[in-house]
Design a protein that fits this description.
heterodimer, A: alpha+beta, five-stranded antiparallel β-sheet, 7 helices, 12 strands, globular, B: alpha+beta
Amino acid sequence: MSGVGDGGDEAEALGVEVVFFLAVVGAEAVGGEVGADAVGFGDPAAAGEGVGELLLPLALGAPAGVGGSAAKTAVMANTATARDRSDGVILGADTRATEGPIAADKNCEKIHYMAPNIYCCGAGTAADTEAVTGMSFLTSVCVASLPDWRDSRVITALTLLKKHLFSYQGHVSAALVLGGVDITGPHLHTIYPHGSTDTLPFATMGSGSLAAMSVFEAKYKEGLTRDEGIKLVAEAICSGIFNDLGSGSNVDICVITKGNKEYLRNYMEPNPRTYVSSKGYSFTKKTEVLRTKITPLMERVEITEVGEAMEE
Amino acid sequence: MTFTIPIDNGDALKNAETDSQRTLYPYVTGTSIVAIKYKEGVLMASDMGGSYGSTLRYKNIERVKAIGKHSLLGASGEISDFQEILRYLDELVLNDNMWDDGNSLGPKEVHNYLTRVMYNRRNKFNPLWNTLVLGGVKNGQSYLGMVSMIGVSFEDNHVATGFGNHLARPILRDEWHADLSFEDGVKLLEKCMRVLLYRDRSAINKLQISKITEEGVTVSQPYSLKTFWEFQAFHNPTAGAQGSCGFPGGYLNEIF
């Protein structure tokens, strides 16, 4: 991961924008950590292809103690208006959370809510991504917008996240793709665990990022319509799902446009259970019900919703 | 350090002088090779760069060579080891020719030979630091296979080495189909090489596409791919989001 930080400094010093897709080997896991594999992955690039080949199975497949990975992709969708101005952001993610070689959650949610107009995809340690996006949501992004009841800005969330991550010097393994539409227009940013950020037309993070990025590099063009954009993002996520071991299951999509958002949970399910018995399950001999007693463990309380519904 | 004491392999690990002659790291390396089977044979694409660590030291290295009458060998990894392999194969082909029996080594045989060589070297902890791609056509049958530095060897319709594994394989898996025409095959390879050019730091924009058919081997002249850098977001990445790139001005703002 030191590779990322160094690269970021160099880039800024040169005034050149450089994208560090190499740096992040995402790990979405329950109680895993990413440090080891990220370092392993950084070295092969420097030492040459051969070394990379030896270490690759470890680095990308997530070594022991490290959570698996998630393919996160996000793309800026430009609707073809007369002025060719971009209109919104489309975020996508797979739904596999791994703990080492095991898929711990087959259908987790990686697109986190930060504000009505800002969503954030998180690759890396699941606990870190959830805590970091939840923290921002609770403390400032929403609060900052309260006084004027205006939409919060994406750069607010961006600065909060990068300050937090930088202060932890990369130990909070959250690699994020932050997207949203605010008064200044649509924005798409990537945030690396050490705290560096990029602003891009399309971005990918996680272990499936290379597979997804190859789809973007081959097929992205400006002036995509909403449907074309969704199709492209879904294709990129599928590329991650089928070509990367750390990503899998379904595709989640989130489309954010001015004043409107659509969270398409399980937009695509390309990995259904193949053999499902149509008969269902039944006990071999007739099981007789002798007595039924239901004990509620908690009292159910009716809450009347006030204002906007809480999301996540 | 220059003279070797003849010892059997059992002591190899203990003897310091032998140790110092084992390959531990690669020095001058070539990046990915991407190859596909198409209607008439096999197409192989490679760039012409040889990196010395993070410097692009050589820009005119041919990493794909014809072997005998029926095969094409592409290599990524340590260039000196590739040259050594070419010497081995030269000897092999020479001995085959000396039989003068009208028979010649086909791609399957060459692939098998390379697998044995790579695996044996790996067992002695002195690998040839390459990933080799072997393509060829003999008696109308196309063949495409790959051997890695540790001896992993297999055959497939499309292969990629190095970074191509991550960036080109997804594209090939999606878009390859049997009986591609020559133009379609080249377009597909160029698509993969373009993504590699964008995203692999050791790739250069000078590539050669080699083809092998029943008639023989053709290696194209080196040429460059067109790239596109005019995305709106690249022109003005911080429009409406000043300070989002962090360092310029951002740090100072924190003082207040």
